[in-house]
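Researcher: We are triaging several targets before committing to wet-lab work. For this one, the compound of interest is zinc ion. I'm pasting the protein sequence and the ligand SMILES. What I need is the predicted three-dimensional arrangement of the protein with the ligand bound, expressed as structure tokens, so it can go straight into our comparison scripts without reformatting.
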Amino acid sequence: MRKYSRPLTLLYSIGPVLIITSHLGAFLLLITGLSWQGLLWAIGLYAIRMLGITAIYHRLIIHKSYQTPAWVKWVGSMIACSAGQMGPNWWKGHHLKGHHNVSDHAGDSHSPLYPFSGGLRGFMWSQMGWLLSPHFFPPHLPADVEADPVLKMMDRLHFIPLMSLGFLSYWVGGLEFLGAFFLSTAVLFHGVATVNSLAHLFGHQPFATDDYSRNNWFVALITFGEGWHNMHHAFQWSARHGYTLKNGQVVRLIDPTYGFICLLEMLHLATDIKLPTDEELRQHQRRANPLSPVSVPVAVSLLLTGSKKQ
Ligand SMILES: [Zn+2]
Ligand SMILES: [Zn+2]
């Protein structure tokens, strides 16, 4: 792991503290109860922040699958930061060198199959354990994001948008809305984390990759399309992840994050949207050693006893 300066180590370390605080804070709702208005507040905060992470952090800043004016990147990053899942530089530092380049092998920051080779331990590691270990610090900070002073400042002060949203929630609806904010933040954290855990354990592998990434419909549902993760590993630069192959034919899958990118394009805020052709998708079909989806009982037993690499 790379060594960071003491101030940066301290600033980054605030992240896990706030995520744990969100989990504990959700218990406020046991005292206040949760009205329909509070529930809608929690769902709204989940949806907009999930889009910040999927459309802005992941598909725009990290994989550059489309382009936007700088201010869209900045506003989107501010929203993504308010998810409490660290800043854009930290994210990209982990995601390329610490995941895509070494997926499910030594050096992967959060694989369920390395270093614990699956099982409940591997699942827990990829779901949240790695964030409470020295692996929390990214292997490097990406030069392109570091060169953007606005993104760099947001990355270092990543906790301010989250805390501001907490104060806003309290101001709007008192303790109940603060509890709804905490609940939304904790659920959002686990929703995003299922891409690292479940989408590397269970689901289809229609495309050839060197890893165990899967297309998982449940993860796609709760992460607005990020669960089509095998496709994403095969075509990291694609703005749309929602593709699979059936009987050699390309099938398009629901991908709300891609829908959002199309909306940005309609508003003339997104350009240069990268998509694979059907021919490219077919050429990437997994031919050897196809992995089939597992049934629920088998999935549970794999989780408890250790997932077998196939
Ligand atoms: Zn992955
Ligand atoms: Zn990615």
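Researcher: Any quick observations?
Model: Residues 6-305 form one domain.
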